[in-house]
Amino acid sequence: HPHFLDEFPETELVVSEGERVVLDCSVGGNPEPKVSWKRVELGLPVTQHTMPGMMLELPSRWRVIIPAVRPHHSGTYQCSAVNKLGKETKQFSLRVTAPPELDGPKEEKLELSLNEKAVLQCRVWGTPAPTIVWEYSNSTSGFKTIQNPGFDLRLFELSPLAPSEAGTYKCTAVNTFGTVSKHFNITISEPPKIEQSELTEELKVSIGSDMLLSCVTSGSPPPVVSWLHNGHLVSSQSLVDGHTHSLLLGPVNTTSGGKYLCVASNKAGVAEKAFKVKVLVPPRISESYQFS
């Protein structure tokens, strides 16, 4: 009748990732038993073909050797010994522990648009399964824990994005064997706006005097401002004071009148404000002489 040569019929093994593991199924019997291995959960025989990375020592020691164990090797392995007088089985419960490990870089930069939907993915693995905590920080405060309402804690959804949600998000994965974190640096693009852009501002300026046109802009990133006169780009340099962009022209002449546009643009959009300029020319009296 087949019998195992060690005194413990079942064995539980808890090992760290990367260790060498030996599952020993030394067996005796007369006639000599036929020995086979299988992975219980998968219902598959253990061979070098079905379980790459494993080595079998058959029939001398009936051992399964895993040179560098990985979490996917965790499970129950069964050794069966059979001859014509009977059958005996022995099971090994193998649990592979591993600290949390990220799939991908530890830092990610995201440039997003206002009202866009974003899903931050903290793809992390470990055994036992790590606990995941999300935190948020901006330019005025340090990291604070934030609640993740989603079912899958590895995903954090931001929708729709508001300007106040720009900053750094951090996911931290923890189990009893280690900790790992990932940072998401988020900038949010906001389309340009110009104060009172819905109104066309009308100006009257006397010929020969200076003219100043101004528009107050906002947006993220700060918009670039250009000026157009009757559809043509104005070469004069814009004056900038904070969010106020001004165009100084002078002395004006009769060709200075017409339509001016303040155009603010960034990667999120374009905004315009129109000015209508009329150049005032003083009356002139022309003298004529007649000779008789």
Describe this structure in words.
- The protein has 292 residues and is mainly beta.
- It folds into three domains: 13-97, Sandwich (Immunoglobulin-like); 103-189, Immunoglobulin-like (Sandwich), CATH 2.60.40; 195-280, Immunoglobulin-like (Sandwich), CATH 2.60.40.
- Helices cover 0% and strands 58% of the residues.
- The chain is built from no helices and 26 strands.
- The chain has strands at 3-4, 10-16, 21-24, 27-28, 34-39, 44-45, 55-57, 63-66, 75-83, 86-102, 107-113, 118-121, 124-127, 131-138, 141-146, 155-158, 167-175, 178-194, 201-206, 211-220, 224-229, 232-233, 239-241, 244-249, 258-266, 269-280.
- Strands 11, 14, 15, 17, 18, 20, 23 and 24 form an eight-stranded mixed β-sheet that branches. Strands 2, 5, 6, 9, 10 and 13 form a six-stranded mixed β-sheet that branches. Strands 19-26-25-21-22 form a five-stranded mixed β-sheet, with no helix packed on it.
- β5 and β6 form a beta hairpin.
- It is rod-shaped, with a radius of gyration of 39 Å.
- The termini are far apart.
Average pLDDT over all residues: 88
CATH topology of the largest domain: Immunoglobulin-like
Assign the structural class, choosing from mainly alpha, mainly beta, alpha/beta, alpha+beta, or little secondary structure.
Answer: mainly beta
Largest sheet: 8 strands, mixed
CATH arch. level architecture of the largest domain: Sandwich
Task: Indicate the proportion of strand residues.
Answer: over 45%
Total number of helices:
0
Name the poorly predicted regions.
none
Order of helices and strands: EEEEEEEEEEEEEEEEEEEEEEEEEE
**Share of helical residues:** under 10%
CATH top level of the largest domain is Mainly Beta
CATH superfamily placement of the largest domain:
Immunoglobulins
Tally of strands:
26
How many structurally independent domains?
3
C-alpha end-to-end distance: 154 Å
